[in-house]
Records
---
Amino acid sequence: MAAPPVFYLIPGLGADERVFQFLRLPSEVHVLKWLAPETPAEPLPHYAARLAEAVPPGQPCWLVGVSFGGVLAQEVARLRPLARVVLISSFAGPRELPWLGRVARATRLYRLLPPQLLPKLPALASWFFGVKTTRDRQLLTQILRDTDSNFTRWAIARLLQWPGRPEVPAIRIHGTDDRLLPHGAAHSQYVLPGGHLIIISRAAEISRILTMLTTN
C-alpha cells in the first residue's frame, strides 16, 4: 500500500504559514519557514539548498509554492528529485513577468524602491493582491506589517533576476485576475476566479485540486 503524500508548503514573499490556514489537505503537511539570507547578495540556489535541508532527500513529496515560494519550490526540486512541484500564483521564468517587472529586471530600478511602501498603502496593496473581503484584507495587512524589510529587499532582487528552471516540471494553479503576475493563467492547468491571493480566497478549491493530484 502506497504511503500517504507529504506536503511541503512554501509561502510567498514575506508571508508565513498564515496564508495556508484555510487549506484542508489529506495527509502530513509541513510549512517551510523563511530563513534569513546569509548575506544581502546570497544566491538563490544557495538559499534553496539551505531551505531544502528540511526535506529528506529520499522522501517522495509535493512541494507547493505560492508566488515567490513557487520560485523556491522549483529550486528545491532540483535538489530533491522525488519531489513534485505545484505552483500557485507563481511563474516559471522571466518571460512571464509583467512589463513593469521586465523593466525593473533590465534596469535594476527595484533597488530604489523602499520595501516598506506597500504596508503603508493598504488600499493599493489590496488592489495589487486582488483581495476583496474584510477577512482577506485584514490578513494581508497583518502579513505586510510583519514582513522584514531586509528579507523583502533580498527576495525582490533574487526574484527579478531569476533565470527560470525549465527543466523542472510543475503543475500550476493561477487566478484569472492576478495583477502581480497576469501572464500566469495562460500557462496554468487550473485557473480559478480571483487575484494573487487565491491561496486564501479559493482555499477550498485549491484543497480539492491538491487532494485530487495526490490520488491520481
Note: The chain has one domain: 7-215.
---
Amino acid sequence: MAASLNIVVVEDHDALREVTVEALRGMGYGVQGVDCAEALSDELKSLSVDLMVIDLNLPGEDGISLAQCVRAVQPEVGIIMVTSRGQVNDKLLGYESGADIYLTKPTSVEELGAAVKALARRLKSGIQHDFVLDSTTLLLQGPDHSVNLSSKEAMIICAFARALEHRLAYWQLMELSKSDSISKSTLEVQIVRLRKKLLQAGTPNQPIKAIRNEGYQLCIDIAVI
C-alpha cells in the first residue's frame, strides 16, 4: 500500500498528461492533471498538494514561472520538472527556480515513478504528522491516544487520505464495501462510528464532515504508512 501522497501533473499534451496521471494513480497516489499554470492559479492556496510534476513548455505562464509561484505559496511542496530542455543552463535555471528533481524528456513511466518515490521519502522525513495510520496493524496513532480500526475503517481512511482535498463521493465510499447492498443509511452509520474513533485518537470536533448531496470530507491530515 503506497503512502498517502497528493500529486498534481501540469502538462499541456493531453495524451501524455493522461498517461502520466493514470500511471501514478496505478502506483497508489492521488493525482490530478491540469493543462496549464492558469488552471491552478486560484487553487494553489486551497489544494492539499504534496508534489507537483511540471512541464516547462506550457501555454501562457511557463513551468519556470509556475515553480517560482509554487515555492512562494507552498514552499514545502515537492517539485519534479519534466522537460525537453536538456542543456546545462536549462537545468541550472530549473533548480534555481525551485525544482527538487529535473528530468529530461523522453522520460519513462518507471523513471518518473522512481523519482516520485525518492522525493516522497525525502518529504516524509521532514514532516511530523499528528495522526498516523499503520496500514499493517490498523492502529491509528494520535498525539495522546491510539485506537484500533477495523479493516474496513482503515480502508476508508486510506481512501480519504489519498483523495483530492480528502473528499469522497457516496458512490466511491460504497464501492469500498465491495457490496451492492450497502445503502446511504448504512454508510452513515459507518461514518458515525469512524468519527467516534477519530475523536478518541484526539482529533478536533467533526473530523469527517458531510457534503450535502455529494459525500464526505476528511478534515484532518492522516499519514498512512
Note: The radius of gyration is 19 Å.
---
Amino acid sequence: MTKMIYPGQTIGIIGGGQLGRMMAVAAKEAGYKIAVLEPTMDSPCGQVADIRIVAAYDDEAALEELAEVSDVITYEFENIDYDGLKRLTQMAYVPQGAELVRITQNRVTEKQMIVEAGCPVAPYIVTSTYEELLEKIGEIGFPCIVKTARGGYDGKGQQLLKSAEDLQLAKDLFTHSQCIAEGFVPFTKEISVIVQRNGDGETYCLPVGENIHINHILHETIVPARIELSTAQLAEEAALKIADSLKLIGTLAVEMFVLEDGSIVINECAPRPHNSGHYSIEACNISQFTQHIRAVCGWPLRKPKLWAPSIMVNVLGQHVVPLTNSISKFPDWSVHLYGKSEAKVNRKMGHVTIMTDDINTALQQITDSGIWPE
C-alpha cells in the first residue's frame, strides 16, 4: 500500500511559481500545511505557504531543511537539480522520485523513453556539436527544428531550419548542451493530455485539451479538443502507456501533434501540472492540482468529469491592465492572477477560464474583448 499523508501534515514544494501556488491552494483546502523552497522571497507560492525556505534549488542545507519540515515533497517544474533531488529522496519521502525528472529534463532521454513506451515521435537525430549536425542533417532533411537537449521552454532553446542556408542559425544552441534535430511534422492541431497516477497504479486522464500558441507561448486551451473521438482515444492511450512505462506517481502532461489523418505524434512531456490543465479548476469535478495532491499523498483518485465546454486563456504581462479594466464586463469569466510583482511583456501573470455552451461564441467574445489583440 502507498504511504498515506494526512491533513494537518506538511507538503514540501520545490519551486515557488504559479503551479506551486495552485498546488498549495488545493492542498490547503484539505487542511495541509505547505513548505516551499524558492530562491525569491515574495514568490507566488511563498505568498500562501506556511514555511518559506529562500535558497537556491541545489542548496544542500536548504534541501535538508525542507526534508526536515516536510512529510512529503513534490515539485512544480522539471528543471531542478537532479543530483540534489536524488539526495533528497534518501532523506525524505519524495513519491515521484528523481528518475522522472532525469528523464524528462533532457530531450534525448525523453524521446528514448517515449519510443520505448511504444508511442510515435517525429523522426529525429541526436547531435553533440554543430559539426555533427552538419554531418547528420541529411538523415532528416528540411524543414526541421533544432532543440537544445536541456533547458528549453516556451519556444526558447530551439530554431526552425527551413533549408541548408539556415543551418548557421542553430550554431549558438550548441553552447548550452547537445541538441536534437527533429523532422518537421505537418500537423493540424496541438493537443495535450494530463495523466495522473497514484502509488497504487490508479490512473486517470483529464479531458483532451486543444492548445493554441502565439509566439511559442500557450495562448488558449479549448476543452474538449475539436478532434475526432478516435484521435482523442489514441491520445489518451498514449498518455496511459507513457505513465505506466514511467511508473508515474503524480502528474504528467503529454503534448502531442495531430496529423491530417487523425493520427498523433508525441512532442514532449512535463512531469507536473501543466498550463493546459488550468481550466480544470472550474470546469471539472476535480482540478489537476487537487488530483496531484491526492496522488502524492496516497489518496484514491477521482475520475475527472467535464462540467461544460471551456476555454482557458493565458494572461501575459501586457494583458493585465486591459483585463483588470474589463472585469466588470464579464461576470462569467473566472479570473486567476498569480501574485507576481512585475508584469513583464510575455510573462505569465495569470489566466482566465470561460465555461460556455458554445465554444465559437466564447472565442469571439475573447477576440471582441480587445484584451488579447491579434
Note: Residues 114 and 242 are 7 Å apart (CA to CA).
